[in-house]
């Protein structure tokens, strides 16, 4: 049979190369919580030898969607496509418990909406400023009521009111001769809780001769929804975002969040039954570049000043495994004089963040995250570099619990400090 006519499920030859790459299999050594085991379940559902029930659904819920198995697979199985379609079926076929459904409904009513997220950030600022959070954490009441709420509180970053209220520019001009005109994705979590990453991105682009446009009206890219099986919601977000960039007339669309970038590059697959939007999505996706990927395409022009520091580079899963980008960030950092970049043991393993995974599966996420943090500490570096906001929040939260002085920066923040001649601190 021609491979193009095969069901992608049948591409799996059950060799087991994916097992050591899978964080949940490493945690529990349970076959049904490995990519191979989940594909067995998918095949059973297709052939009607397995029926949907809460147990089957739980095995798919426990998958991080980190795509490490895609990198490890010698047969080229597109597990990323399989798990996304299966999760969409899971949402249709198996009703969630009332508390689970309510928690997810609240998450997806807040996280993909920058304005709502900003309001949440202001309420969080009040929660912290009044001392209420300190009291709640001291009593441990949230952990007793709900591990998910405790995780949400633990992950919430501390941002100043000024940072939360500030709206960034809509355009930044190139310094010197203009080399490119690029669109920049603001993001949701990135824009509200990591505005310094967007600021650094714009400064670096300007110094490298790029005019940066941040179109009005752009919202969520739909990545969180897509990874959670909410495909219709993801399509709606994608249409809005595509429209916002279509009139910008940019050469490239630059993204500084790994999870967002992987979804933007896969937009065409969202519209496989809609020819008009499939074509528009294909044109849009062809312009998308991760910021490290884009800068690697552009011969460096701005002067790199030395930074005497040792950093550990963390591969965000949706950068390394979904987008197959690993050399470019390392090359970017290696171009900074004096900076020492070390590799993290088992660096291809997920940190446990995985979109909203650390919120809906906190026990598993913490077990996986603990392994990652211990491996980072083994490097002896005092700073980790990560290209995804979810990874940064999750890793920093685990450090705080260990009373660690380690902290995290985005690769573009490190480069920005170098271009400005500032130390990392």
Characterise this structure.
- It is a single chain.
- The chain is α/β, with parallel strands linked by helices and 425 residues long.
- The strands form 2 sheets. It has a 5-stranded mixed beta sheet with strand order 1-3-2-4-5.
- Helix 15 crosses helix 18 and helix 19 packs across helix 21.
- The model has no long low-confidence stretch (mean pLDDT 92).
At a glance:
Helices cover 54% and strands 8% of the residues. The chain is α/β, with parallel strands linked by helices and 425 residues long.
List low-pLDDT spans. Answer: none
Fraction of residues in helix: 40-55%
Radius of gyration: 21 Å
- In terms of DSSP E residues, the strand content is 5-15%
Categorize the overall geometry: globular
Distance between the termini: 60 Å
**Biggest sheet details:** 5 strands, mixed
With helices defined by DSSP (H or I, 4 residues minimum), what is the helix count?
25
Strand order of the largest sheet: 1-3-2-4-5
Structural class: alpha/beta
In total, the number of strands is 9
How is the quaternary structure best described? single chain
- Mean pLDDT value: 92
């Amino acid at each position: 049979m021609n491979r193009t006519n095969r069901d992608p499920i049948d591409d799996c030859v059950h060799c087991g190369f994916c097992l050591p790459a899978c964080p949940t299999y490493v945690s529990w050594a349970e076959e049904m919580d490995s990519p191979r085991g989940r594909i067995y379940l998918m095949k059973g559902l297709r052939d009607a030898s397995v029926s949907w029930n809460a147990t089957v659904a739980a095995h798919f819920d426990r998958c991080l969607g980190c795509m490490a198995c895609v990198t490890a697979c010698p047969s080229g199985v597109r597990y990323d496509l399989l798990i996304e379609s299966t999760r969409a079926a899971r949402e249709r076929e198996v009703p969630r418990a009332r508390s689970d459904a309510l928690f997810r409904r609240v998450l997806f009513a807040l996280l993909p909406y920058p304005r709502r997220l900003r309001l949440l950030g202001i309420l969080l600022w009040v929660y912290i400023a009044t001392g209420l959070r300190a009291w709640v954490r001291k009593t441990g009441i949230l952990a007793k009521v709900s591990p998910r709420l405790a995780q949400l509180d633990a992950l919430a970053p501390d941002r100043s009111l000024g940072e939360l209220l500030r709206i960034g520019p809509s355009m930044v001009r190139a310094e010197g001769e203009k080399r490119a005109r690029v669109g920049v994705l603001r993001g949701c979590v990135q824009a509200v809780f990591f505005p310094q990453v967007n600021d650094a991105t714009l400064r670096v682009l300007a110094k490298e001769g790029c005019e940066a446009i941040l179109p009005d009206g752009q919202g969520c890219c739909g990545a969180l929804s897509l990874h959670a099986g909410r495909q219709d919601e993801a399509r709606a977000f994608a249409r809005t975002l595509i429209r916002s960039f279509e009139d910008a007339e940019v050469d490239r669309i630059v993204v500084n969040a790994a999870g967002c970038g992987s979804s933007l590059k896969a937009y065409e697959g969202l519209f496989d039954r809609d020819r008009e939007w499939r074509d528009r999505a294909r044109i849009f996706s062809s312009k998308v570049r991760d910021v490290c990927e884009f800068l690697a395409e552009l011969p460096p022009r701005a002067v790199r000043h030395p930074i005497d520091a040792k950093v550990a580079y963390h591969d965000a899963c949706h950068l390394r495994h979904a987008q197959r980008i690993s050399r470019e960030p390392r090359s970017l950092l290696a171009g900074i004089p004096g900076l020492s970049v070390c590799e993290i043991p088992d660096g291809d393993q997920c940190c446990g963040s995985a979109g909203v995974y650390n919120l809906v599966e906190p026990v598993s996420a913490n077990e996986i995250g603990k392994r990652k943090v211990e491996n980072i500490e083994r490097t002896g570096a005092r700073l980790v570099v990560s290209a995804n906001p979810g990874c940064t929040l999750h890793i920093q939260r685990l450090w705080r619990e260990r009373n660690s002085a380690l902290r995290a920066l985005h690769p573009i923040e490190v480069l920005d400090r170098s271009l400005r001649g500032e130390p990392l601190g």
